[in-house]
Structure formats: C-alpha cells, structure tokens
C-alpha cells in the first residue's frame, strides 16, 4: 500500500478517483503545526524562556517553536497508523511555498522510515496525477526556507509591533508586514479625499445637423485657440487651475457664448479616421482573478478564492495560486479547438499567443489559471456538479482563457472638428466616433462587463458621414456645468492591483489580508469601497513617524524580493533574519522598537486634525479606548457609527459638537434623587442619562435609549423620567406574578416570569397598562407557538479544513443571521451582509464561541467534541491538584486571561 497525503479532504476525494486500490489518499486538513497562537499553547518546558512569547528563539539562530494544534493530534495519530502499513509515502500538497512547508512539517512530525516522494501537479486530472507519480522529486529546502522565513518575520513583526499599538492606541489591534502597508494605502487615499477641494467649470454641448439632415453631438474644446479646462487641469488640493495656458470657462461666459452661437453657422474643418487594434488580456493570475471577480461579480477576494479553491480541488481548473500568465502546449491546443468550435475559425489567429510574466520567482511561476483536463469542461457541467459561486468564477476563467488566444479586435476611430464664430471669437467643437469592424476577442470577453455583446454595443459610437468643408447648423446648444470629484476610494480589486503593482505580499495572501483589515476594524465597506476607520489613521500616523520603514511600501517590496531570493536558493535565511531583527548598518526591528517606544505620545498619534472653526479653534478627531470622538478645546462629542473620515468636515464637526455641548446641559433634575437628567447622543444613537460619573467609583450612571420615533431635540423632562423609570412593573397577574414592561435590545416587550411578548406597533411602552399586557400575554407567541420547519441554510461550507473537516452553515435566525457547526451557534457581526463575511471570519466566530462557553462555566453540550471534553477534564484535574479551595476563582481568572489580548497572548497576525 502507498500512502498519499494532501491538505484538503475535497482534494483527497478527487485524487481517489484517479489512483488505484494500491493507494490510500488521506488529508492533513491544512497545516499540522505552527508557532504557538497563545500562551496556553507554549509547552511547559519553554514557558520560563524570555523568547517563548514570540515562539521564536532569536538567540539560537531564530529557531522556531512549532507546536501541533490540539485539534490536529487525532489526525496525526491517524496518519501515523496509516504510515505503519505503507511501503511508500507520497506528499501531494500544493506546489507553492506553503504547500512545500506543509510537506516538510509532515516529514518532521511523522518521521517516516519508508521512501518519501514529493508529488507536484498544477491540475487535478488523471493525466496530471499519473505524470506527477512518474516524476516525483524531493522536498525543496529553498522553498521551505522561504516559507519559514516569511512566517518568522511575520511573527516577529506582529508580536513586537502589536503591543505598542495596544499601549498607545487601543486593545485588540494588530500589525502585519503586508497588513500595515495595505492600511496605509487606504488611509493615504482617504487623506487625499479629505484634502480635496472641488472646482466647477463649464463647457457647451452642441447638436449639429448635416446636409443630409442627420445629427450628432459635439463638445466645445477650444475658444480662440485656447483649450477649455477640464477636471484633470485643477489641483485637487486647492481647486485652482494647475496651468495658465488654458481657458477656465465659467457660468456667465458659457451662457454668453451659447447665446452668441445660436444664430451662427458651422463648418467641418477636420475629419480624420484612424484604424486601431486591441489585443486580448493575458489569462488569469491569482491577483487578476481576484480583481475581475470583484469588478464583474462583486465578490470579495475571499469569496472568489474560495470558489476557485473548490473548482481546483474538484478538477475543473488548474492551481489557483499563481503569478504566471503562460499556458502549456496542451492547454493552447485545447483552447484553440474550443475557439474554433464556439466562435468559428475567423476568430483564431494563425499562431498561439504567448504572454510574459514579470514574476522573478520561476519556482513558483506555474501555469496561468485555466480550465483543467484533456478537454475543457462546459459551464453547464460545472453547474450540474458544483453550482453557485463556482459557476460564476468558472465562467470568468473559461471566457478569459478562450479570449486570450483569439484574434485582435479591429476598428476605426473617427474624429470630427467643427468650427464656428461667436462674434469676434472663434470656437471649435469636437466629436469622436468609434466603429468596430471585427470584434475578435471582445466577442468572448470584455474586462469588467458581464455581457460581451452589450459591451460591444456600448463601445461603438457611430457618427454620420461628413466631409471637410460641410456646412452644419446647430439644432441645439446647451451650456453645461461640471464639478471635479475626489479620488475614488479603493475597492478590493483596486487594492489588490495596488499591492501587486508595488510588489508587496503574494497574490495568495491578498484575500486574507483584506479580510483581516476588515475584521480588525481598520476598514469597513461602503458599497464596494473600502473605507479606513479613524483607528487606521492613528495606527498609520504612529508608524509613519516612529516606525517609518515598517510601513513603507518600498521597504516592504524589497523585503519581498529577499524572500523570493531565498526561495530560489540565492540568499541564506539566517543572515537575512539577523539583519531584519538585530540590524546591520540600519536599525533592526528590535533596537528600533526599544529606541522608539518611549518616544510615542498617544495624544499626538491619536489626534487627527480636521480644521479650524470660525473662531480659530482647532477641531480634532481623537481615537479613544471606546472609539473615535470629536474634540474642540474642552468640548467633546461622539462620532456617529459608520461615518466616513472625509465626511467629517469642519461644518459637520461643528454641528456635532454643538449637539454634544447641548448634551452637557441637563434638561432638569430627578424629583427624588435630585440628580441631573441629560439627553445625549452616542455611537449607537440618542439616550437619556441620569447623573454624572463619579471619578472615585466604577458605577456608571443609568442610561436608557430613546424609543423609536422620539426626537432628542424635543424630548421633555417628563418623558425622560418615564424612560428612566424602566423597567416598569404594571401589576400582578391572577396568580400573583409580576408583569413588567422592558425596553430591550430588539425593542419594547413585556415579561411575566419567563414568558415574554413583543409590543405591537400601536402600543406605547410608557403608557401600556396591565389589562393590555394580559391581552398580549394571552395571544400565541409569534414564531414560537409551533415548531418551524428547518430553515434552508443561506450558505453551506462542507468539510472546513480549519475546523478539522466539520461543515459550517450560515442560517437566518430570529435575531439575524448566524453561523453554526452543529454544536455551537455564533451571530454574525452587526451590520455585515452574509456575502461579505468570509469563511475565515466564520471560523473565528465559531472558535471564539467555543472558547467562551467553557470560560463562563457552562457545561459542554452532549454533542461536544471528544477533544474539547478531554481538554476540559485535564484542565479541571490540574486545578483541583493546584488549589481545590479556590476552584471557582481560578476558573474565572484563567478564563479571563485566555480571552484577553496581552503580550503573552497577542491577537493573530497575518502577513
């Protein structure tokens, strides 16, 4: 028997179809070991070591401390059992650095005493698998070194820089080698939007009639030989013209020109037609697939890559993590056959097209992403077997692959210039028409468009036949106003493009980086745009001033080049790690942090200047422990949740501060306690507050949210007191049980014992009486009076690697969507759409919920995993031995420690 190990259960299932009964194919379910993720994972013998927090012994040649995740111990035992009866071990993990490292880790853990062969293939087809078995190799130590170096650098960067962010800005923040640069790119774009000053300009649109009474539109381009200013001619930071040799047409002048030209005649002075050709785009790489998935399908990078992973593991496409734009000889032959069959021979060039890649790392420059196999699967075939996102992504890949080998698109571009006079002034209008004579590759694929035929129609702008000297009349003249717009925010697609063009990170990591910066609340989505938060502004400000190299795109790109050089065997990893951490000619990470940490003033880095009001007072946004807020002198005001930084203008800030100032003036006093009553507005809306915080006490003043429809501007003291009196006891039912009215998180309701009912729309929480409450309680409980049929999942993920192969379902619950693994349910983050929440985030929600349940002292469910039960049993036994009398106290303390991010237990950091 020969044992084949892959990473994914789906990949294992597909391989089994092609390998005979002599082979056993088993999955490692992703990574089998890694650096410790928390202090609890550090082995006892290392816990006293100063370097244990990092998980890397920087004093002993950066030796990493690898630990097997508890959830993987059962899998390792199973692989060891299978290995005992095997005569040969084949390692068939992915053929990139990460896959090579997984194979190396498996050998290190399993220590096989039988021959070990490394299988590599970039498509899961019978031919590719058989070919890989005939041409095995050994594990590539250079690729492993590169991956280890990357992992160690990411750990050192994250675990050394993140604690600074916690101390100086706020808890639960994280820094990362690529993550932090990505945040800076977003912040720089938002800063440009905040600096932006709009400018207005005018032009004229004319509708001309030809001698044959056909019409076309043309736009005014020059007056007296001077070109009219357009949006690109204005400085975005000042709104002023950036050059003096052009004419800035304003409203009055545009109107006068319009009137003067109404009775004029016009002559065609130039009619020039030029042919053009357009060549197809290269086939997909990882980065270009993510970009196009975002543009065409509105999918996030994670969603696109998840679908591509499924397509690869099911044998429909080649390996989806690649920088290459080349196609194999067989792929070219199959693609050309498909073009001739689908579109006709006239769309097929004489020779196959070749594309060059800019990637330096030849060891990882596999084939481009394309349909796999000895025949190209139809879109319908994928629909029958997979469906959903996989079909949409496969259609992109199918069309792009065919288009890259099709003929050029050919056409003609006609430019017509028309001159006329407005009194003593000479004006010129211009119109451009485009005719596509042969669509070529555009018949199959137009970048950014779902419908190639419709896109072709949009690209054609036909002009009527005119010749130089034709006299035209104007049947319509209209002066038009235009305003410059701020630079567009980055989307996932444009951020990926920016990272790729800068040489930062690897395409395979972009999806997880974008996911991380959203989970860490460094950005949020507005439509498809990524908007940086004020927390991101503070982090970038801190690093720009004090850790400039670590957030410099050029420095990060050079680091990527060194990692590529290590993977090619040109550079040794140890000297580079020493240089990065200790320094050599320039400060290394460790001395840089030791030197700078005490210089960082939180009040400076956490202050984002907005501007000055009419009195000359500066307005700032400050990032506090509980979120961003406005400050002007001693006056503060909270910022509404979800507000974009460029929307916080001086005018908007002044308005919010005025509301904040009014909130500091009480609307009256409580008749019994004589405490002041305030109406305030917080991040989550308006509320009533009784009293003021006591600096010497941890007790907070009572706060009650306003009911729906209440206006904080007109709220009276009487109504405020009624809100503060909630919950309100209405009386007792016939059995003597209290009936109480509450203002709950999901709206007003009444409660009798454990029985609750929501109020109807016409009910008022402040005036409802016992009689009406009893009527509501006598009615069937909505949604609970009968057993519902199981709801259809909104999303299903089969065999999730990060959860040891357990499936996940996203369901719609009473209080919104949630994710379930069959044992644990976790609500999705508030305000997030189901399609925008990635698989990685769902996994983290489940893991956090699993950890939180035993921490609160809950009993494990009957269906809880054996691993969790075993872990809980060991933990309890250890506590009993240590100190029986303090069992509860110790349990709470341990739970608190494990759920709080501290230097011994930092948040997970990615790239």
How would you explain this protein's 3D organization?
By secondary structure, the chain is α+β, with helices and mostly antiparallel strands. A hairpin with a 2-residue loop joins β23 and β24. Helix content is 35%, strand content 21%. Mean pLDDT is 85; it is low at 359-365, 784-789 and 854-911. The protein folds into six domains: 2-148, Rossmann fold (3-Layer(aba) Sandwich), CATH 3.40.50.140; 200-279 and 410-483, Topoisomerase I, domain 3 (Distorted Sandwich), CATH 2.70.20.10; 286-407, Topoisomerase I, domain 4, CATH 1.10.290.10; 616-663, no CATH class; 668-778, no CATH class; 794-861, no CATH class.
Note the topology.
Elements lengths: L1 E5 L2 H10 L4 E5 L5 E2 L21 E2 L5 E2 L2 E2 L4 H12 L3 E4 L5 H14 L5 E3 L7 H9 L6 H28 L10 H17 L4 E10 L5 E9 L2 E2 L23 H11 L4 E13 L7 H12 L3 H13 L15 H14 L36 H7 L3 H15 L5 E14 L2 E14 L13 H8 L11 E13 L8 H11 L4 H13 L3 E4 L2 E4 L1 H13 L6 H15 L5 H10 L6 H8 L5 H4 L1 E6 L5 E7 L2 E6 L2 E4 L11 H14 L4 E2 L6 E7 L2 E6 L11 E4 L11 H8 L3 E5 L5 E7 L2 E6 L2 E4 L11 H9 L16 E6 L5 E8 L2 E5 L4 E3 L11 H17 L10 H17 L4 H13 L12
Helix pairs in contact: 3-5, 5-17, 5-18, 6-16, 8-9, 8-12, 8-14, 9-12, 9-15, 11-12, 24-26
């Amino acid at each position: 028997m020969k044992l084949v190990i892959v990473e994914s259960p789906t990949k294992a299932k597909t391989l089994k179809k092609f390998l005979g009964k002599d082979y056993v194919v088993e999955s490692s379910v992703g990574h089998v070991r890694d650096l410790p993720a928390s202090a609890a994972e550090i082995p006892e013998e290392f816990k006293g070591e100063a370097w244990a927090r990092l998980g890397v012994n920087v004093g002993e040649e950066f030796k990493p401390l690898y630990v097997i995740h508890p959830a993987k111990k059962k899998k390792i035992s199973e692989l060891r059992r299978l290995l005992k009866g095997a005569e040969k071990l084949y390692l068939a993990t992915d053929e990139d650095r990460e896959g090579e490292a997984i194979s190396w880790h498996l050998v290190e853990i399993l220590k096989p005493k039988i021959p070990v062969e490394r299988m590599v293939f970039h498509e899961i087809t019978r031919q590719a698998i058989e070919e890989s078995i005939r041409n095995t190799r050994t594990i590539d130590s250079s690729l492993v070194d590169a991956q280890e170096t990357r992992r160690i650098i990411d750990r050192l960067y994250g675990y050394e820089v993140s604690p600074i962010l916690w101390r100086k800005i706020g808890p639960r923040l994280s820094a990362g080698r690529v993550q932090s640069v990505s945040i800076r790119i977003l912040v720089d774009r938002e800063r440009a939007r905040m600096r932006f000053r709009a400018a207005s300009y005018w032009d004229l649109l004319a509708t001309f009639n030809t001698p044959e009474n056909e019409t076309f539109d043309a736009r005014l381009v020059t007056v007296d030989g001077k070109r009219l200013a357009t949006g690109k001619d204005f400085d975005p930071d000042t709104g002023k013209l950036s050059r003096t040799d052009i004419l800035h047409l304003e409203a009055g002048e545009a109107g006068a020109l319009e009137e003067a030209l109404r009775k004029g005649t016009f002559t065609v002075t130039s009619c020039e037609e030029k042919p053009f050709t357009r060549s197809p785009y290269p086939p997909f790489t990882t980065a270009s697939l993510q970009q196009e998935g975002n543009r065409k399908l509105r999918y996030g990078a994670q969603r696109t890559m998840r679908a591509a992973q499924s397509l690869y593991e099911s044998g429909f496409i080649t390996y989806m993590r690649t920088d290459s734009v080349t196609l194999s000889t067989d792929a070219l032959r199959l693609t050309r056959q498909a073009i001739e069959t689908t579109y006709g021979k006239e769309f097929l060039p004489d020779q196959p097209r070749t594309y060059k890649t800019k990637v330096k790392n030849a060891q990882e420059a596999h084939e481009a992403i394309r349909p796999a196999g000895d025949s190209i699967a139809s879109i319908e075939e994928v629909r029958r077997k997979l469906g959903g996102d996989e079909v949409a992504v496969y259609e992109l890949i199918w069309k792009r692959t065919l288009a890259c080998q099709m003929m050029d698109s050919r056409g003609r571009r006609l430019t017509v210039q028309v001159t006329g006079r407005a009194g003593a002034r000479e004006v010129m209008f211009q119109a451009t028409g485009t005719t596509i004579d042969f669509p070529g590759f555009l018949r199959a694929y137009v970048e950014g468009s779902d419908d190639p035929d419709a896109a072709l129609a949009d690209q054609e702008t036909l002009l009527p036949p005119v010749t130089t000297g034709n006299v035209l009349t104007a049947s319509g003249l209209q002066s038009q106003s235009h305003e410059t717009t701020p630079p567009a925010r980055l989307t996932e697609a444009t951020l990926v493009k920016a990272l790729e063009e800068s040489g930062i990170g690897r395409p395979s990591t972009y999806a997880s980086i974008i996911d991380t910066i959203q989970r860490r609340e460094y950005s949020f989505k507005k439509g498809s745009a990524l908007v940086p938060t004020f927390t991101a502004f503070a982090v970038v400000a801190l690093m720009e001033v004090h850790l400039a190299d670590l957030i410099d795109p050029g420095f990060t790109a050079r680091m990527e080049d060194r990692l590529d050089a290590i993977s090619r065997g040109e550079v040794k990893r140890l000297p580079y790690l020493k240089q990065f951490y200790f320094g050599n000619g320039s400060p290394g990470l460790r001395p840089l942090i030791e030197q700078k940490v005490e210089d960082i003033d939180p009040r400076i880095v956490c202050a984002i200047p907005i501007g000055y009001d009419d009195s000359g007072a500066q307005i700032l946004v400050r990032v506090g422990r509980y979120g961003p807020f406005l400050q002007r002198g001693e006056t503060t005001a909270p910022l509404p949740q979800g507000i974009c930084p460029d929307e916080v203008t001086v005018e908007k800030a002044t308005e919010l501060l005025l509301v904040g100032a009014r909130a500091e003036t009480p609307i009256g006093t409580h008749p019994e306690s004589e405490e002041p009553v305030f109406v305030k507005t917080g991040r989550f809306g308006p509320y009533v507050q009784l009293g003021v915080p006591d600096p010497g006490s941890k007790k907070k003043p009572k706060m009650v949210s306003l009911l729906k429809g209440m206006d904080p501007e007109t709220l009276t003291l009487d109504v405020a007191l009624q809100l503060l009196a909630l919950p309100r006891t209405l009386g007792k039912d016939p059995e003597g049980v209290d009936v109480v009215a509450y203002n709950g998180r999901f709206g007003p309701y009444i409660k009798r014992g454990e029985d609750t009912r929501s109020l109807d729309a016409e009910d008022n929480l402040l005036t409802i009486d016992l009689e009406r409450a009893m009527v509501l309680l006598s009615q069937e409980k909505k949604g609970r009076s009968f057993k519902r049929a199981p709801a259809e999942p909104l999303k299903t993920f089969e065999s999730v690697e990060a959860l040891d192969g357990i499936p996940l379902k996203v369901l719609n619950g009473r209080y919104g969507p949630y994710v379930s693994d069959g044992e644990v349910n976790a609500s999705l983050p508030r305000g997030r759409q189901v399609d925008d929440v990635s698989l990685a985030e769902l996994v983290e929600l489940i893991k956090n919920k699993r950890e939180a349940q035993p921490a609160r002292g809950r009993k494990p469910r009957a269906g809880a995993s054996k691993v969790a039960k075993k872990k809980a049993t060991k933990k309890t036994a250890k506590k009993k031995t240590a100190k029986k009398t303090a069992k509860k106290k110790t349990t709470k303390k341990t739970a608190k420690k494990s759920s709080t991010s501290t230097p011994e237990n930092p948040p997970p950091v990615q790239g």
